[in-house]
Amino acid sequence: MDVDRSDSENVAAEENAKPVVHEGAGDAATSHSERLRRKNKKFARSNSKEGVTNVAPLPKYRSWKNSRRPRNGHGRGLPKKGGAGGKGVWGAPGSELLEEFVEDANDPNYDSEAVTNGDVEFKQVIVEAEPEEIVRKSEPVILEYFEHGDTNAAAEDFLEFVTAKRSHLVCETIVEIALDHKPSHCEMASVLISDLYGRVFSAKDIGYAFERLLEKLPDLVLDTPDAAVLLSNFIARCVADDCLPPRFVQSQAQATDLNAPARQAIHRAETLLSMKQGLVRLDNIWGVGGGIRPVKSLIRQIQLLLKEYLTSGDLAEAMRCVRELEVPHFHHELVYETVLLALESINSSAEESLATFLAELRRSVVVSPDQMDRGFLRVLEDMSDIVLDVPLAYIVLDRFMELCQHKFRLGDAVLQRMPTRGRKRYVSEGDGGAIKDHALKLRE
């Protein structure tokens, strides 16, 4: 018995050591010591630096004493209960939030009127903003949208303070602000209404907003004389974009309590919708904005503008058309086409009108001095080609530039590059060198 106890305690005996066996133990002691030796080989450890050596392992009941892994042999070797199952621990992090606290009525600190005893029910209450506040908050969002043109950003800003009951005020404010802006902004407003449809307001909200705008139309006309025409464009465009049902226009046309501007707007909207292929044409009802248009289209519009001005002589209408082009970076083409038209017309009255037109553009700063000089310089560069179609181009150019210099000051770069002679002239033509003297006088 003493030998067995010593063998069981000294599990870390060396592998080559021979077990001590008394004579009376017999084969049973030998087989028991061999089993212990084979068991010790299973727990042998090796050190990679010192070579393979036999190291005495800890007993099984010692090596597993402080382990928190499951004893059943299953699992991934992780601690039980996430490391929160040991003695004297507080539990897993955040476990205190999952515990349900139940108040005891027998507790001396129990309050029968407390909100946690189950007698009080909480409900979500949404505070409706005042109409004036919604309009006040909507204005900067709309003006900012006119700058960046991002409808998603505008929708997110609107959803922060707009509720379903007051969403019609957003549509109403968009139209009112667009009435005071350019056609390109009206196009952006129509796109914004179309993108906000179904996200911020519904078709019913849009219809109610236009009903309120029709009622306020007499007051809007005082600030914007074309408010009836613009509002009819908005109504027709919303119908074309499927944001407003067509029966809205029909029901408003049958109403008897409409004011005169509102009836005019509804009648014009009906006309726009009843045109052949009207829904397709309404996509471009505000025109293509500014630099988005092709260059050839812009040049064509500039030429029509100048011809209409020569026919009518209405300078104010011509200036309005120039502003509606919204292409300040392309005004040099306007100057170029104006000078070219003066050379091709060979008419003193047309030259006078076109010089007055350029002087008004220069005076009102619609065309900058840089754009004005660039237009004249382009004409001077192309004179070798222009003179092939207009043989008297150099004579007319001298006369027209003298007229422009009399009405407004031309740039120094233009005067320096002004040609003295386009071709060889003879005394028989009647100029007698007057062209050269006149050019020198202009330079001075």
From TrEMBL:
Residue ranges of the region described as Disordered: 1-89
Biased composition (Basic residues): 35-44, 62-79
Chain ranges of the MI domain: 133-254, 297-420
Cellular location(s): Cytoplasm
Keywords: Cytoplasm, Nucleus, Repeat
Keyword Cytoplasm: yes
Biased segments, Gly residues type: 80-89
GO biological-process terms attached to the record: negative regulation of DNA-templated transcription
Record's keyword annotation contains Cytoplasm: yes
GO cellular component term, pick one: nucleus
Family annotation (InterPro entries): ARM-type_fold (IPR016024), Initiation_fac_eIF4g_MI (IPR003891), PDCD4 (IPR039778)
Pfam families, per database record: MA3
Biased composition (Basic and acidic residues): 15-25
SUPFAM superfamilies cross-referenced by the UniProt entry: ARM repeat
PANTHER family: PROGRAMMED CELL DEATH 4, PROGRAMMED CELL DEATH PROTEIN 4
Homology family: Belongs to the PDCD4 family.
Protein name as annotated: Programmed cell death protein 4
Species of the source: Diatraea saccharalis
